[in-house]
Amino acid sequence: MSNFKPFRQQLTKGLAVAFLMMASTPLVKAETFSPLSARGYTVLPVPQKVMLGSQDFILADGWQLVLGPGIKADEVSVESLKGQLADRFHLRLTESKIGRGLSGTIRLVLAPGSVDIGEATDRKKQGLAEQAYRLTLKPQEITLSANAAAGLFYKIQTLV
After folding, report:
1. What is the pTM of this model?
2. Comparing 14 with 69, which gets the higher pLDDT?
């Protein structure tokens, strides 16, 4: 029991410090949240730019997956997209070269320089450019554009 008293004192001091730190932290205003979080979607990192339409739409069976030039069906990113949609949402995509599905089309585009990185504090612009992607969602078409394979992978994770 003699060791308990110093431990209790340290614990009390630690809790007091933690309380003071929480009490001195400024409250986060609602305006700092992205338009996505306001609609109930979580995307990390928070996108540089978000433009939302007036309605949501459903991604369901019957959607086709169209792979752009340079993207192979057995790439990790493509298999990740198909696997995660199947495992998590029981959704199966059909593959097509033309993209004329009755339900809709998910189009993957990989083209260097297709996505501008915009303003960034990071000085490693080449690394940022390789990770950059654009995700465009419309009721009948989802287009995922990236500059490099890393961006292709990240955009697929964001979509899922």
Report:
1. 0.69
2. 69
